[in-house]
Each structure stands twice: as structure tokens, then as C-alpha cells.
Amino acid sequence: MGMVVNSFRMSFHAVLALLCPASFQTLKVGVPCFKEDMDAERKIEEAMDSQAPHVLAFPFPAQGHIPPMLHLCRKLSSMGFVITFLNIGSKNKSSATGDEKFRFMSISDECLPSGRLGNNLQMYLDAMEGLRGDFEKTVAELMGDSQRPPLTCILSDVFIGWTQQVANKFGICRATLWTGCATRGLAYCHFSLLESNGLLPAQGSSRVLDFVPGMPSSFAAKYLPDTLQVEEPYDPGFLKRKQRNEIMRNDAWVLVNSVLEVEPSQIKEISRCWNPNFVPIGPLYCLSDETSRLSVADHAPWRQDRSCLDWLDRQAPNSVLYISFGSLATASHDQAEEILAGLDKSGSAFLWVARLDLFEDEDTRERILATVRNNQNCLVIPWAPQLEVLEHKSVGAFLTHCGWNSITEALATGVPMLCKPCFGDQITNCALVVDHLKVGLRATVEEHDKQTSAHRIEKVVRLVMGESGQELRKRAKELSDTVKGAVKPGGSSYANLQAFVQDMKRRALK
């Protein structure tokens, strides 16, 4: 972190020397000696404040990716940035926001496949190459817009690597928003090391990755993301992933939705060997005030059922298990029955977010609704205001699919987790929560499995909601204080965000 801040200080004085060479000739960097030199520096600072950086934000069109980008952009807007937020197709229409510094635009999604994103991720990524032409036109339009400052930076999702080539074409910088954990990034950073040790693909190996610098102790290959467990036909030799990762070496910044104190060795190693400006600025939702959070909630795929907050008000403190498997995961009939049976045996009150498309068939959903309909200790809703739920005093634990957004929100609110990963890097996130942060329990039958049973659900729910869960709650509260402190003045994420902001202001002067 210090390295990032110090490198900016050098850059700032380099700009000062460039713009005011006469007054800077006798100065050492960072040590102004005369009043006129200090005046010159003040003028540069004033110029940086008066020329607003203009960022074009381009998120990947999924629920786990759009809100973090929005939280970050709302914060940047409040710090004087001009933001153009580019949506894809019908996800969100182009619109004004009531803030002249923040506007939405959209481009067509005709080239993208239909169907569930979770089942077509690589197909989706490949198809997004077809958006490049429209994206370039948008960049050209913004560069020629006399009503707004010229673009300073393209801020794109980690999945959209080709935006780097567009940024190069227009002579501007690109920053990447890394929406997952840094531990996943560390695995990608050391592709060649995994490959030379016969662990690419990992194939569920129990071998501990103690040969990978920065990897947490006892972290085994079986906890690597699904994308590294098997070699898929669409990406022989993992070439596409390697190419995406190599592009990020040249990014001006990689902004990470994590916290230095949560993944210290991983972040430091990636900064050392991959990109020195790979910096954590999270949790991103903590950057938003209440009004901004409600604005971000407007971009959720389903309307929030806020009546659940009234229901929570009637429950005892720490008595409710909150259950949500995110916006993409699905549950088979058998798994849904196992979870429901385990909950029933545990005797715990629960609030379950059961999306309309969560279950493989409508009969399963109807059975769950019928089971809890007359039970005042249970509530099933299609979508929840998750942050407000996690912050509620009656919520004692969170049964989660281990999506990274959900984990960062649980960490910040101090809620212990029951982890049932479903796909992607969720098994990696689960290992972090359970084995290294020690603020959760596995809800799966086997360590590296994704299946659960009624017996396992009953056992872990009783553990976390009962007297045995006090130590977990204590640890979660301690970590919550650390995580929330990171975004406050003096915190690690705060310092990194300030370094990024000042660098963008410097670039806007050019």
C-alpha cells in the first residue's frame, strides 16, 4: 500500500517539474525549498481539482458485477469525477440520474446469447467480443463531446480484457475492477507454477500449494476455482484465461473489492509479481451512503421484498438464519429437500430468499412455500434488501453460496457464515471464510464438495445459532471492525482509493 502512495507522490512532483520547470530546478522531490515553489505546487493542486477526471465504466452484465461497479462510481462521482456508466442492452436503459456528473448509456446486446448466464459464462465472454465495435463508437463519441471533459480512463470489469486495446487506440489508460477475492487472482498470477507442478488442471488434488508464494497456509489445490479444476474444450491449455491475465499486467490500476487485512499475503504477492497497482479498495458497498445504496438496489434483477424487515423486527436478537444463494445459482429438487429437512430439524427461524428461478422445477418451490406458509418462524421471499437484512439485530447467521459480494457484506456486518458453494470461485471463497478467516462453517458434506444433506444442515445450523456459535460471532465482530475501518481515513482501502483518485486527477491535466 505504501508503495502505491509513494509512487503517486513521485508522479505528482514529476508533473510539477514538467509544468513549472524553472521553479523546480533546484528542488529535490517532495522537498520544496522556496515560497514560489510552494505556490507552484499549490497551483498544480488547484488545477487538478478544477479539471474533473472523466471515467467510462463498463461492468460485466451480471448481478455480482454491476453493483460493485456502481458503488465505486457513485463514490468517485462524490469526489468530483464525471462518470459515464455503460450498460448492455435491456439490463438498464440509458437515463439521466439527476446528477449532471453521472449518466447512464447503453449499447445493444443483440450479439449476446440468451439463457442463464451461469450456464453459458465462457460463451458469453466470447460473444462479448462482438460489442467491441459499438464500444469503440461510444468512446469516440465521448472523446468528441464538448459538453463533458474528455475521457481520462476506461474502468472495465475484469472479464472484459479487450477494453485495454480500445484504451490504447484512444491513448487513455484502463483500470480494471476485480470483483472477486485476491486469492483467485494469486492462482491466475502463478499459472506457470501450477502448470509445472502438474496442477493445471488441478483435478481436485489435495496437494497443499505451499510452493505458491503468498498462498495461505494449508490451502490445497482442490480449493482452486472450478475454472482451474478441469480443462474445458472451449479453452484448451487455459490459453484464453492466460491471455486475459497477461493483459492486466499492463493496466494502470487493478482495483480489488477486498481488504488488505483480509488477504494480506495474497495481495502483496500479486502486487510484487503481476501489477504493482493491484490494490484493495473494498468493501465497495461501504463506500456508499444510504441514498446511493438504494440507487444501486434499483439495478437488482428482482424487486426487493422489504416486508421482510418488518418480520425481522418481530424476531429475537440473533435468532434468524438468513439464506440466500445469490442471483445465478440453482438448486436441484433433491438438494432443496435436504436443506428444508435440515432446517426443520434444527428448529431455527429462517428467512429464505428463493428466487423465482432458484429451483429446477416449480413444484419444488411450491412445496417449500407450502411448508413454511403457516409457520410464523419462517419466511420465504423472492428477493431481499440483503445489506439491511445482514445489518438487522435479529439475524444470527448467513447460509450463503459464497459469492464474493455476499461474503464481503457478511464480513463488514459481522455475520458468521454457513458456506455452501455452488460454482466458479465460490469454493475458494468458502476455504477463505472457514479455514483462514475462521468466521464460518462448511454446510457441505465433504470439504471440496458442493452437496449438502439434511443431517449436515441441521448440525451446522444448531452449532452457529446456539451457544457454540458465540466464538464465531465474536470473531466475526472483530473482523467486521477491521473491515469497516479499512475504508475510513487512515485505513488501507481509503489510502489506496485516494492514490487512484489523485492519479486520475493528474492524468486529467494532460
What does the model show?
The structure is a single chain. The chain is α/β, with parallel strands linked by helices. 44% of the residues lie in helices and 13% in strands. The protein has helices spanning 2-19, 21-24, 35-50, 66-78, 121-127, 132-143, 163-170, 182-189, 191-196, 239-248, 264-273, 290-297, 307-313, 333-346, 362-372, 386-391, 404-413, 426-436, 454-465, 470-486, 492-508; strands at 54-58, 82-88, 95-96, 102-107, 153-157, 173-178, 253-256, 278-280, 320-324, 349-353, 378-381, 395-400, 417-419, 440-442. It has an eight-stranded mixed beta sheet with strand order 3-4-2-1-5-6-7-8, sandwiched between helices. The longest helix is centred in the N-terminal third of the chain and has 18 residues, at 2-19. It is an enzyme of class 2 (transferase). Residues 1-17 form the signal peptide. Belongs to the UDP-glycosyltransferase family.
**Quaternary organisation:** single chain
Overall body shape? globular
Task: Determine the structural class based on helices, strands and strand pairing.
Answer: alpha/beta
Radius of gyration (CA) equals 24 Å
